[in-house]
Amino acid sequence: MRKPRKRSFAELVSENKSQLMKDRAAMEKIEARLEEKRLGKAE
């Protein structure tokens, strides 16, 4: 049996990103965290 080719880091990142884009709940959580950071810096 042939062993599977190791994926490059860029491939893993793009795959992860596309899955996140599909997952609305995860996106909402990330957006909320970013918003908190922005508000914290503004003060």
TrEMBL record:
<dbReference type="InterPro" id="IPR025004">
    <property type="entry name" value="SenN/SenS"/>
</dbReference>
<protein>
    <recommendedName>
        <fullName>FbpB family small basic protein</fullName>
    </recommendedName>
</protein>
<dbReference type="Pfam" id="PF13040">
    <property type="entry name" value="Fur_reg_FbpB"/>
</dbReference>
